[in-house]
Amino acid sequence: MRETGVRETGGRKAARGGAAPDGKGGKALDFTWHLSADPAEIATTELEFALMRSFESFGRWQAECLISASGLTLSGPENAMLHIIRMNDRAKSIKELARLTNRDDIPNIQYSLRKMVADGLVVKQGTSRTGVTYGATERGRAATDAYARIRRALLVGELDALPDFAARMAEATRVLNTLSGFYEEAARVAATHRR
Q1: Is residue 62 part of a domain?
Q2: Does residue 139 lie in a domain region?
Q3: What pLDDT score was predicted for residue 23?
Q4: Looking at the structure, do residues 166 and 193 belong to the same domain, yes or no?
Q5: 81 occurs within a structural domain
Q6: Is 4's pLDDT higher than 70?
Q7: Which of 61, 89, 93 is nearest to 145 (CA)?
Q8: How many domains are contained in the chain?
């Protein structure tokens, strides 16, 4: 980015004070508030809002796609967990599920697993002595296969039509994984120094 006193913000140009033209030659939009006092904070806040909106949209997509595929009503995170349980057709422990989803809310994970067991999507295997794991049932495999077909037709086909799709997605994945590390470290420091 050249130092011109103007920067890009989510497709809009914003002046260094946080204001952006409205695109109609009128008054500028003001991006400054308690989370956005300078250009770095504005950029970070815009990214965080985009992440929140993307997360909610992704969750709605997951739920609607699963309903279309199987008539099942699971939340977005529960749907993601079902696919992770099915991943590589290998049963997984609660500890593995928590690690793979970067979650630490074990009681909520346990609740979701009980719900999926009751729906006949996953089966609980083993004992507390040998180690408890959860694997996909035939019904769970059928639901995730149907989901994959609808996802391929409605979502991936559209995304694949974007120019340089694979490269853009790979870069987005790298950026999100890097941000995940920054947020994790910041959370650890905040927890360490909590009063």
Answers
A1: no
A2: yes
A3: 60
A4: yes
A5: yes
A6: no
A7: 89
A8: 2
